[in-house]
Known about the structure:
Chain A is of the alpha/beta class. Chain A has one domain (58-249): 5'-nucleotidase,  domain 2 (Alpha-Beta Complex), CATH 3.90.780. Chain A is 37% helix and 26% strand. Chain B starts with a helix and ends with a strand. At the A-B interface, helix 1, strand 1 and helix 2 of A face helix 1, helix 2, helix 3, helix 4 and strand 13 of B. Strand 1 (23-33) of chain A pairs parallel with strand 14 (300-302) of chain B, so a sheet runs across the interface.
Amino acid sequence: MNFKNLFLILGLLLAMSCKTQKDVSKIEGKNININDSLQSITSIENFIKPYRENINRDLDSILAYSVDTYSKSDGHLNTAIGNLMADVIYEEADPVFFKRTGAHIDFVLMNHGGIRSIISKGPISKRTAFELMPFENSIVVSKLPGANVKELLDYLAKAKRAHPISKLKIVLDKDGYLAESSVNQVPIDFNKTYYVATNDYLINGGDGMDFFKGSEAVYVLDYKIRNALIDYFMKTDTINPVADDRFIQLTD
Amino acid sequence: MKRREFIQQTTAATALVGLGGFGLQSFSSSPKKITILHTNDVHSHIDPFGPQDGRNPNQGGVARRASLIEGIRAENPNTLLLDAGDIFQGTPYFNYYGGELEFKLMSMLKYDAATIGNHDFDNGLEGLYAQLPHAKFDFVSANYDFSNTIMDTHTKPYKIFIKNGIKIGVFGLGIQLAGLVDKNMYKETVYLNPVEIAQDMSRILKENEKCDLIICLSHLGYNYRNNSEKPSDLSLAAATKDIDLIIGGHTHTFLKKPTVVKNSIDKNVLVNQVGCFGINLGKIDFYFDSAKNKSSEGVSILV
């Protein structure tokens, strides 16, 4: 055995000793804030830039104009912004639903909490739609028996919130009980079934809307709410929504 | 097999260099340091929050995170960079590019591994699969069985890294998908009990793979105070052994410092989570001594 071999064996012995499990003697842990005290790496910044510019160009291209600023806290039982959202869902989703099933949507019910921002006076862009609806929720249609429609109306009467509705009219008496309800001026018949457009969050019982569990069928339109808004803004010049009499409470 | 041979040879060569350069003493006396860096729930937050942001003004940003990581790696090249899931969803970068930019940037930052969060299913299994070519890092997930899906063979239950002769096993855990993610999105993905899987994983990594350090990348959530049945990082830590560090996500919990939890055999486990949106970076340094040096004083934890 020459010197070189001895050296190799010594090395291998050391390597083997390294392969036995080792123990931790000390641990130090901390969470470091990332803020403007850190320099950005230019190559990373430059890599992101074209993506950012492309998105901003698209998001900020003007699609329509809003005559005023609208907020979901503007009204009690119905608001201009909520009415706009629900009407847009009806207008954009009904042709899709009709094409697929040959039936029309009877009315729309969304949730007040689903309006995630205001619409500001002035230009409307895709960014507006992303702010209003940052989530990926999409439109579904429930085939809902009259009994469950009754529960839906009771839910709205009890909640007394401006959950956005379209094509549905609800009047509460001065004590807050359901006085009248109609779809397209026809009183609701609790022996009939109705096609109710909503979103995939509510259909699964979101916001306590358990009445959707009674759905006889659920039609998934594969149509995102945000995309319905964008499609509407693209073909509309000016939006001027109003709070109206679709959901009111009588005062005497 | 080839790879294993290569690793052994490399170790031998390193040992020889050490012998030549510093002599026999230095090998046993100087502790080895492994740095673990981690993020979770970055949710497509590539740009920093603007100065006007109501909550997190001037915080976050991938290009800044990159420089922080670069500095830490320069200080200690024996560093792993990990992510605990929910890489996707939260800014238009995801809506426009489907996660392409997120994966490309994580690859540029040299992430070593990530696990899969519930929002990583937001464009369906197909949407995740389509972005995989942009990820130059591995996905570890031990309790999602993807056998009957397009993701089959594209994740590993665990991955082993060797840094400066220290063997590090990293395994991944995901949250229950039913009720959280639309079935159309996760399809035939089967969710397996994370606690049982973690027990299996830690045994495999400790006993079979002889790892020196075992890390769990978890998207289970930090703690569910009102639902103790629901698996969380804290309950997982207490119900398992041989895990050194649980890196968590999902609950967007901003821990000021890592939590120390006693495991099933009364040994310490570190649980850490850095909130969300790339606002913070977790940094855990493990120092390894030869067994002789260690036994008298035990492990000191400075958090």
